[in-house]
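Annex B. Sample input.
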Amino acid sequence: MPLAAVQTLLPLLGISRESKLLINIAKPVASLICFFLSFSFITLAYTFIADDFSLRLAASHSNTALPFYYKISAVWGGHEGSMLLWILILAGWTLAVALFSKDLPADMQARVLSVMGMVAVGFLAFSLFTSNPFERNLPFAPQDGSDLNPLLQDVGLIIHPPMLYLGYVGFSVAFAFAIAALIGGHLDTAWARWTRPWTNMAWVFLTLG
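Annex B, continued. Sample output.
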């Protein structure tokens, strides 16, 4: 969450002070956020695969008899895990904007990444303080867990939620472009043209989902 706050504040400060260093800091910070969230999600997935039922989320949504692929999908079968997946996808979209928007003016890209940092701060705070996926059952860890919701035990539902999340969260990019245009006072057709490819990609993922 501190990194997301840095991504939010420093680029805007850089624009106001005309500091290229601060304007460009959003890109490496976005990379770090995506790396750490990927590590967190992989760690969470490993606890499901390893049947670590000291983790409350794994004990509530997985068991030793579940096939491997359902243990993976069980990671987002509960609210806390699905929130972590949502935030990871948000970080992925943010990193994509940082890497593949080189044609944008530097100040516009900095504002877009700053707005996406604001969104990330909100979701990270919500996950950390109300929906922590790493809460433990210690010292009384169960020997086995619970069954995954039968409605989720379908091959199609292994890919359905991630595809929808990619689509839903993808529209945060369009939102960020719109807010960045408002902040910068450039309410012309340029921002709509810049955001169109990202919006189309989000619609593609929703369609697949």
